[in-house]
Each structure stands twice: as C-alpha cells, then as structure tokens.
Amino acid sequence: MFLKDVWQVAAFAKEVGREILPRTLAGEAVILYRTSAGAPVVMLDACPHRFLPLSMGKLSGDVVQCGYHGLCFDHRGDCVKIPGQDRIPSTAKVTVFPVVERYGFIWVWLGDATKADESKVPDFHWMTNPEWAVSEGYHHIDAHYQLINDNLLDLSHETFVHPHTIGNHAVAESPLTVSEGEGTVIAHRDILNCEPPPFYVQAAGFSTRIDRWHTTIFTPPGFLVIKNGSVPAGMPKEEARAKGIARERRVLNLITPETETSSHYFWGIARGYDIENVGLTDYIRSEVARTFDEDKLVLEAQQRKLGDHKITHFPITLRADAGAVRGRRLIESMLRGVSATAAE
Ligand code: FES
Ligand SMILES: [Fe+2]
C-alpha cells in the first residue's frame, strides 16, 4: 500500500532526456523521457495492445513506438499510429501522469490526476537557490521506505553507524524532543559542548568543542528536511551567525518507494557557508555518500531480516523512537484517509 495522491520524486531532472528511462515508482512501472521541446513525460511502461513494456520500444521524434507491433503513442498517451490500419480504437491509450519539474527534480503524481495541484510540491528550494551550495547524490536501497524514514527521524544511530564521519557518543546521549506541525513531525536534538566528529572538523572547520543541533522535519510519504549546524560551544547562534562562523546545513532527503521492499533515495546537502568552494562541495558529496552507504548496509540487513513481513509495530519502543513512531502514525492515518488529528 502506497500513498498515491502526493507529489513524489521520479528522477533528478538531469537524468531525463531524449532516451527512454524505465523506473518503478510506488509499485508502478513507468517510463520517463522529454519531448523535443524539453517537456518531461512520465507514462505507464505497458503497451495497451499486448502489454509489452514500452521501455522495449523507442522514442522516435515525439512519439514512443512499441517494440512489438509498432503502435505509436504521443506525450498525452494517445495512440497516433497503428501500422496497417487507419482506425484507432478509443482504448488505444497509455496512462500519462501529471508531472512538474522543480528544484532539479521531476515530480510525478501517481494518484487521482484531478487532485494534482502544483502548489503542493514540497518545498526543496535549497537545491537550486544560489545562496546555498549543494552536494547531491542517489542511493538505491533494498528496504521499505518507512525504514529509511525511521532512520532519519532518529539520528541517535549516528553514534553507532557513523563514527568515522558525523557520529560520536554525544549524539545518542542527547535527548530528543518531538512535536507535530501541520501534516509534519518534527524531531529535534541539541548536542551541547561535544567534541566535533570527524566530518565537523573537515567540512566545517571546527577543532574545539561545539554545540550542534539537528531538526528533522518529516512530511509523508518520504520527505525529510534536516536543519543542522554547529557553533563554538557556549556561543549563542545569533552571535556565531553575526560573526560568520556558524556552520549551517540542510540535509535534504527525498525518498520514493520503488516496491514494498525497495526505495529510491535522492539526497542533497545544502550548505550556507563557503559556497564558492567546489573542493568542499565534492568532499561533502563523497563523505555523505560514504555515510549513507553505512545506512544502506543497516537498512538492507533489516529488510532481509524482515523479509516480506509487513511490520507496523515493533516490540520495543524507546524514547528515541518518538519521532519515527509519530511519522508512521501520520502515514497510517493518511492511508486510511483521515487526518492525524482525527486519528488521535
Ligand atoms: S504489444 Fe505493443 S504494439 Fe502490440
Ligand atoms: Fe545515517
């Protein structure tokens, strides 16, 4: 079961061009391409004649031609040519999904097309705002998307999974506070007067003790904006900002389910300091990719252990799970079609 009446990321915009790109999104096999005018198209990867995947056909001008009997479909999904006959049956049509290109992504609406409202695309403006420098990447994760949400709503795991980059013992020892916004769950940690972990030395330039913080803002089904940063220990944030020594980032996580046991994980690390430093952008990309490789290892091992079992409640709930539990509850209530408030 997936939420369909939502905008989700189908691809980085730069991935989609004049070649057919097949991809599975929330259980739907689709193809992506651009018309000659550059407009992105997402349509079902199935010819309505005998169901050969259209990804086995070819993009010819602005039509997709099926690789079996040569039916041609335009960007609206309408059949425009059938070899050997003039009459085109009204059923010769492929479902085309609403799309929006924004923030460097192709967004798709897989649900009821009449509800697709472009103003509802989640805000990820940091990806393309020139005041931020972005290191971006993608991980394919063989795990259910909610396991990734859980991971990002409880960052205490940094201590144990990421000791070589962003974690140290202080993270797991710091208390988590959780609140809810409008259709969101917010999980916050202040980690005060701690040693800077290796990433904070290399990518933020701290060599003395720091105060750091994480605020994860979760919006279903799989959007997590983590506002994080650090200042010299004991210095008020405003003072550090005024002195230009606060180091603040947005860790942008956009997860689209692929199947019940796999996910597309698009990510970007936007930083608001030293933004012209291309070497730093590359360094952050490689260190974060390495860090997320560590998450992938954990998440895929969890999924292998769970198998196809659709777990909704775990036997132990810790204080640190408060954000993840509320995030799951929010998704459950949306799947049931009720607001989270009504579900309380
Ligand atoms: S299956 Fe596509 S044209 Fe026949
Ligand atoms: Fe992690």
Main attributes of the structure:
single chain; 344 residues; alpha+beta; Rieske Iron-sulfur Protein; Naphthalene 1,2-dioxygenase Alpha Subunit, Chain A, domain 1; seven-stranded antiparallel β-sheet; four-stranded antiparallel β-sheet; 18 strands; 22% helix; 33% strand; disordered C terminus; binds FE2/S2 (inorganic) cluster; binds fe (ii) ion
Topology:
Blueprint: E1 7-12, E2 21-25, E3 28-34, E4 40-44, E5 58-60, E6 63-65, E7 72-73, E8 79-81, E9 96-97, E10 99-102, E11 105-109, E12 133-141, H1 145-153, H2 158-161, H3 169-173, E13 176-181, E14 184-194, H4 198-202, E15 210-219, E16 223-232, H5 237-243, E17 247-259, E18 262-271, H6 278-306, H7 322-335, H8 340-343
Antiparallel strand pairs: 1-11, 2-3, 3-4, 4-9, 5-6, 6-7, 7-8, 10-11, 12-18, 13-14, 14-15, 15-16, 16-17, 17-18
Helix pairs in contact: 1-7
Residues 47, 49-50, 52, 66, 68-71 line the site of FE2/S2 (inorganic) cluster.
